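Hi there,

I know you've been waiting on this one. I reran it after we fixed the sequence typo, so this is the corrected version. Both the input and the resulting structure follow.
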Amino acid sequence: MRDSLCRDLTGTFVGCDGEPTRATCSFHDRPCVLGAGDVLQLEVERMDGEWTPLFHRCDSHAVDEFPDEHSVHGTDQALVTARLEPTGAHLPATGHYDPDALTIGNVEVQDVSAATEGRRSPLADRDTLTDGDALSEGDER
């Protein structure tokens, strides 16, 4: 898992189309700008066979382990740190290539939340709803 995680994330674009040479922290009220050479912590999730970044954390919002409140049962998730590198990327919205766009480099896995861990849906242990469990229009529970 760790090898595929590092391989899938290395070179992933983390800026935004408007400012591809800057990344931001997902947990600031005001803009927190990160640039080339800065360390970024990421919460990532395995979706459709690939690791995808969910949240970015700057040094002041970094955590030691994958947050329980973001852990989802049935999904492999991980907490990683990476150094931001200006290696260039095709911008998602426009497809335009920016040679200085920020990407993820030097990935280190800090913590893993396996698919067998995390919060479960209230319906996860129920095979099917019985007719009596179905809500009619206007019903509240």
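Quick highlight: Residues 37 and 80 are 16 Å apart (CA to CA).

Best,
R. S.
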